[in-house]
Specification:
The protein has a domain of about 90 residues. By secondary structure, it is mainly alpha-helical. It is built from 2 helices and 3 strands; from the N terminus they run ααβββ. Helices cover about 45% and strands about 10% of the residues. The relative contact order is 0.15. The longest helix is centred in the N-terminal third of the chain and has 51 residues. Helix 1 packs across helix 2.
Length: about 130
């Protein structure tokens, strides 16, 4: 009797079927993981920007930067606050800063580019008495 080598067509089809079932379970979970990771990174960036902004105000008699340019130069691109480089939005947007006189300081995504569960419109008070 001669021994047969290799797999039968039925065995190969069963292996393909098992792999397809496993892939159908794993793939949807992996696609959601990327969005969750982006949201977590965006949330961490918000928190770090707010902490840096509050730290800056604490070191400058409660005064916040007056405009986007000063915010970028004094906080975002400052190695004291971000020694490993400026925070980058994982969605490709930029963080926009505005200081409204005596009311509140706001950091947000530009209009129409808000993403994830990030603290869009996260703010800290610019009132030094608060």
């Amino acid at each position: 009797m001669i021994a047969k080598k290799g797999f039968t067509l039925m065995e190969l089809l069963m292996v393909v079927l098992i792999i397809a079932v496993l892939a159908s379970i794993v793939v949807p979970r992996m696609s959601g993981a990327a969005a969750t990771a982006k949201d977590a990174k965006d949330d961490a960036n918000w928190a770090n920007l707010i902490r840096a902004l509050e730290n800056y105000a604490g070191n400058n008699d409660g005064k916040y930067p007056k405009d986007q340019g000063k915010f970028d130069s004094k906080i975002v691109n400052n190695k004291t606050y971000f020694p490993h480089g400026a925070p980058v939005c994982p969605y490709g947007a930029t963080y926009v800063y505005s200081e409204t006189a005596g009311e509140e300081t706001v950091i947000k995504h530009p209009p129409g580019t808000e993403h994830g569960s990030g603290a869009s419109g996260a703010s800290g008070s610019s009132d030094p008495n608060e």
